[in-house]
Amino acid sequence: MRKYTLQNLDCAECALKVERALDDLDSVDSVSVNFSTATMHIDTERMDEVIETIRSIEPDIQVFPAEGSEGNPHLHTRMRLSRELLTIISSVVIFFTGLFLRERLAPTPSALAEYGIFLTVYVLSGWRVLYLAGRKLIQGNLFDEHFLMSVATLGAIAIHALPEAAGVMIFYRIGSYLENLAVDRSRRSVKSLLEIRPDYANLKEAGDFSKVDPKTVQVGDIILVKPGERVPLDGKVLSGESYVDTSALTGEPTPRRVERGDTLLSGMIVTTGSLEVVVTRRYEDSSASRILELVEHALQNKASPEKFISTFARYYTPAVVVIALLVALIPPLLLSGAAFSDWVYRALVMLVISCPCALVISIPLSYFAGIGSASRRGILVKGSSYIDALTAVKTVVFDKTGTLTRGVFEVTAIHSSNGFTGHDILKYAAIAESHSNHPIGQAIRTAYSGEIDPGAVQDYHELPGQGITARVHGRAVVVGNDSILHLEGIDHERCSVSHTVAHVALNGTYAGYLVIGDEMKSDAAEAIGELKKLGIRRTVMLTGDSEPVSRDLGTQLGIDEVHAGLLPRDKVRILEDILTEAGAGEKVAFVGDGLNDAPVIARADVGIAMGKLGSDASIDVADVVLMTDSLTKLPESLRLSRGTRKIVYENIVLALLVKLAFVVLATFGMAGMWEAVFADMGVALLAILNALRVLRVK
Question: What does the longest C-alpha to C-alpha distance in the chain come to?
Answer without folding.
Answer: 122
